[in-house]
Structure prediction request, 460 residues.
Amino acid sequence: MAAGSPGRASSSSGRFRNAMRQKSREYKDFSDSDDDEIFDGEKLKIRLLSMWNNMRHGFVVPLKAHFREDSPIWLLGRCYHARNHEFSGVQSTEKCKVLSMDEFQRDYHSLIWLTYRREIPQLGDSALTTDCGWGCMLRSGQMMVATGLVYHFLKRDWRKTGRCHSREQEHFYRTILRFFGDLEDEELSPFSLPRLVSIGKQTGKQAGDWYGPASVAHILRLAMAGGTHPLLHDVNIYVAQDCTVYTDEVERLCTSCRTHNWNCSGGKWQSVIILVPVRLGGEALNPIYIPCVQALLTLDHCIGIIGGRPRHSLYFVGFQDDKMVCLDPHYCQSAVDMSSNSFPTESFHSFQPRTMSFKKMDPSCTIGFYCETKAEFEKFRQQTTEVLRPPMQRGDYPMFIFASHPKPPAPDSMIRSADLSESLLESTGPGHELEKSQGNAPSVDGAVSCSPPPEEYVVL
Prediction:
């Protein structure tokens, strides 16, 4: 029979159907084995990706920033200069004390630097034992809260080097470091990466997902609220909603006892770390807000900003002219054993000042503040209100506002749900870490808008 005839085609079709039935039986018999192979393949893929990220971020050569000698440097409310001059605060005529560059180095290196880690406990149900390539926003948030805790236990003028420390100060410092160690002990390390990932899982996040500055703020709030360590009983974290700090909510938080706090007298004011998620523009940072950001970094209450640029989260702590001073978590180190009192601390301080242009900053960020007493909170409110509105701006677009209490909810007919991005920048690469979480839409002409909780948001 000639090739291509109907008989030959029918015979070939029959053999094909028989082969498919045999394959189907084999699939049914060995489906469990195939699933195991697929699972092993996924684990191998994760391990290879982790190895690549460990190598990529483990050989970063720290570059030393070059600062101008004719311009002041601001670092979390402190002014430094290579020469002895007096300078007024940004948008203020009040003279500030100017410190030397040696003092700047001591101040900068007293900040706690937290980076990528490898060889940490397995994260949840995943095969990940490192946060390289995806956890830099969590690390940035850890650093900001660590600064707030240093202010709380050791005060603003505490320095890691150059001064004698009491045994109590050493104890507080080591305890703070242990709070952020990558341990699974929730009491000793309430802000560890495994615990933050576990809390994020409750909101739909998985180990290896990208986190935005707003979602990290809420994860840190939940971590503090659930912290059982005795030293955390008199400090809280408040996250602003809809770009608004509600003073009634802050007062209620700071005067209430936690359920696990047995030594609390109701009504006594407790310290608070205030986190304000904002969006300062549309696809890029609106330059009208640069003076506002600079002014906030000159306040004593400011503990920095977490944000960065696309694919690269940073912890901003100061500025000089048009450049921001930051700490960069993109360096992979081996996990540190923090279960004993003899763990090394040098690895937290072997870093150099880094800078980044304001123009490269992603508009989505979270600004942090610390207030120890009610009087400090009132002072923070007054000073901050004066610098939140962009200078020389026709419209009234403050970065965020203060209000006594939330407004009553609008009727259902006036509410529509909105699934909006925390960052409008599109990126699918493995290094993108300013994730597309829930947020408010940018307002007209790139003006500031809010970053609400990571769940569904409503717009009137």
